[in-house]
Write a structure and sequence with these properties.
Shape of chain B: elongated
Mean pLDDT of chain B: 92
Oligomer: heterodimer
Bound molecules: adenosine-5'-diphosphate, magnesium ion
Strand order of the largest sheet of chain A: 6-7-8-3-9-10
Mean pLDDT of chain A: 88
Number of strands of chain A: 10
Number of helices of chain B: 10
Low-confidence stretches of chain B: none
Largest sheet of chain A: 6 strands, mixed
Strand content of chain B: 15-25%
Structural class of chain A: alpha/beta
Number of domains of chain B: 2
Radius of gyration of chain A: 18 Å
Radius of gyration of chain B: 29 Å
Number of strands of chain B: 12
Distance between the termini of chain B: 26 Å
Helix content of chain A: 25-40%
Chain lengths: 247, 368
């Protein structure tokens, strides 16, 4: 296992906790989490709903600040980033895949992909050209002018991946990317992301409650009640749901 | 960004159409008010503006001819003529009077002037000729159109039949229209042969206007003397006192309605796309991207509203003027630019109002 001091690590969490206030009640969404993520690997955060996976991902993306503990991204403490830095870092160095993909329905597929390229500072025509190239690469070039609402889930998934990797980001964060997919499609998206991590030496972190996709991960981290309990090899994944077969 | 905004807008064609229609109607309202005001303002004071006299003499309780009762005696005109530097003096008598024709009746602001002096008559004749004899009358164009009166016909004032010999322009003050007869006829109608409302004085070239004014006031007691510019200003001010508060109020309502419609649409468009905005924020949209989108939407709608309004405006004004001829409008590029400027300003205000909605949208919402 890599240590927190490894300069190659993209993400390092040390004893990170996040507590929300829900009325008068404190909700400990993440407790004392430790995590190191490095280039070339696909990590699955596996845990049931409400266990704190999404909170962890948003902490990693710098969208939330931790209540305690320290968090560094790309070798730099999160506290040293200004708001503007965080914004441009998300635009250039992090790719996002959301549950249900959240493509922008009012603009065509190609512009959905081009948008993140524009956010990272590319010119319009350059962004559109690169977006088309990516869609062709994913075998969905023919969908470029369609609106996302006209796409099947499987097609949306590919567009979402294309959007996430458009800027060739060092880190991809995917929250329940398989939730709306059939099993095979679920495997597809994880495979695409896995290929990306391997070939480009990038890091992908996937949060899921879907035990079946854990098989494809380089590492599976169990998230239970806000704790990242075990940095386990993939065959330990079954501990999360004792008694249920691994798909 | 603009193409994205355009797509958001055209994604809801009905909503867009209703908003643009609402906004363009507000713009038409403002344009129309301005044009009507200028029509009235010009119609009310063109008579004075185009008058060639250098000095106006009225009794000292009156400083304009629109609202005020000035009573002078024509005998005093002769005394003014003797003043050094005075070229001519001509009396004009104004009276509000009803005129009748075939059972119809209407009120005019009748000006009795001296045709020989050719001062104080109709500012512009668009048809026929000016009054020469005591049995003739010149009517305002819009008035004639409204009551379907044409050259050669006769109208009755009291028991006198007057033949319409001319039609004038620049003589419509909205609430009342000018008509012209000879001074003698006007005096006979009111029953006081020696009476006048004001004296129109022309001076010799290079004459000392101030000295002449003083001279007039010394010779005729209880009068005030105004030069052309001052008198014109007096009348315009008198008109504005009556109209501007009304115009401002209605225009302000138009502006408020426009801003409300626009802000409502922008806010709804933002709230409906909450998730989109959260996604933009998460994906690292640069500062100003989301607000720029609101501003560009607002600008697009306003622009569409302006174009629709201007397309709609002229046929509408045409129609209104045909149905109610006494409403005569004057539209200028200047007015249009002013209205467009107000609309653009309000479009910025609406963007700022609806941008408050953006603050409550967090990147995190993309994950919920
Ligand atoms: N903004 C918030 N305010 C209050 N409680 C929250 C908030 N976000 C998450 N939580 C709580 O934190 C816990 C973890 O949530 P989450 O990270 O979404 O879990 P998961 O993604 O594993 O389903 C849940 O109990 C959730 O109700
Ligand atoms: Mg979640």
């Amino acid at each position: 296992m890599r240590s927190a001091a490894d300069p190659c690590s993209y993400v390092v969490l040390k004893n990170v906790s996040k507590t929300f206030l829900d009325g008068d009640q404190k909700v400990h969404a993440v407790r004392d989490a430790c995590l190191v993520a490095s280039p070339g690997e696909l990590i699955v955060l596996l845990g049931p709903s409400g266990s704190g996976k999404t909170t962890l991902l948003t902490l990693i993306a710098g969208l939330l600040s931790p209540t305690s503990g320290s968090l560094s991204l790309f070798g730099q403490s999160l506290t040293s980033y200004s708001n503007g830095d965080l914004q441009s870092m998300r635009a250039k160095r992090i790719g996002f895949i959301f549950q249900n993909f959240l493509l922008i329905d009012s603009i065509p597929v190609v512009e959905n992909v081009a948008m993140v390229l524009r956010f990272s500072g590319r010119g319009r025509s350059d962004a559109l050209a690169r977006a088309r190239e990516l869609l062709d690469q994913f075998g969905i070039g023919y969908l470029a002018r369609k609106l996302p609402s006209a796409l099947s889930q499987g097609e949306k998934q590919r567009v979402a991946v294309a959007r996430a990797i458009a800027n060739n980001p060092e880190l991809i964060i995917a929250d329940e990317p398989t939730a709306s997919l059939e099993t095979n499609q679920g495997f597809d998206i994880i495979r695409l992301l896995h290929d990306y991590a391997r070939q480009e030496r990038r890091c992908v972190i996937v949060a899921t409650h879907d035990l079946r996709i854990a098989d494809l991960a380089d590492r599976v981290l169990r998230v239970v009640d806000g704790r990242v309990r075990v940095q386990c090899p993939q065959d330990q994944a079954k501990e999360v749901y004792p008694g249920r077969p691994v798909a | 960004m603009i193409s994205y905004s355009a797509k958001i807008l055209t994604g809801q064609p009905l909503r867009l159409a209703i908003t643009v229609a609402g906004i363009s109607l507000c713009i038409v309202l403002m344009l129309f008010l301005l044009a009507a005001y200028h029509g009235v303002a010009d119609g009310s004071v063109d008579y004075i503006r185009k008058n060639r006299s250098d000095l106006w003499v009225l009794s000292s309780n009156a400083w304009n001819i629109l609202r005020g009762s000035s009573i002078l005696l024509t005998a005093d005109a002769a005394r003014i003529e003797g003043i050094n530097g005075v070229k001519s003096v001509s009396s004009v008598l104004f009276l509000l009077t009803g005129i009748r024709k075939d059972g119809q009746q209407a009120t005019v602001y009748l000006a009795g002037f001296d045709p020989e002096a050719d001062l104080g008559g109709p500012p512009d004749i668009v048809q026929g000729r000016t009054v020469n004899g005591d049995d003739e009358i010149v009517l305002d164009r819009d008035f004639a159109r409204k009551f379907n009166l044409s050259l050669g016909e006769s109208v009755r004032v009291r028991d006198t039949l007057l033949e319409i010999v001319g039609i004038s322009d620049g003589t419509n003050a909205l609430v009342i229209q000018y008509a012209f007869v000879t001074l003698r006829r006007a005096q006979q109608l009111i029953g006081y042969p020696g009476m006048a409302t004001c004296f129109l004085v022309t001076t010799e070239p290079g004459a000392n206007i101030r000295a002449i004014s003083e001279g007039i006031k010394k010779k005729v007691s209880g009068v005030e003397v105004y030069d052309h510019e001052t008198f014109l200003k007096n009348n315009i001010r008198e008109l504005q006192v009556g109209f501007l508060p009304f115009i401002y109020t209605v225009a302000a309502i138009g502006v408020v309605v426009l801003t409300a419609i626009l802000s409502l649409l922008l806010s709804v468009n933002i709230l409906e796309r909450r998730k989109d905005f959260a996604v933009f924020k998460t994906l690292g949209s640069p500062r100003g991207f989301v607000s720029g989108m609101v501003i560009s939407q607002s600008a697009l709608i306003s622009l569409a509203g302006c174009i629709a309004a201007i397309t709609l405006y002229f046929p509408l004004v045409n129609f209104i003027e045909r149905v109610t001829p006494e409403i005569s409008t004057r539209t200028s590029i200047w007015q249009m630019s002013a209205v467009v400027a107000v609309v653009l300003a309000m479009s910025v205000v609406s963007s700022l109002i609806s941008m408050q909605r953006l603050r409550g949208i967090y990147a995190l919402e993309a994950f919920s």
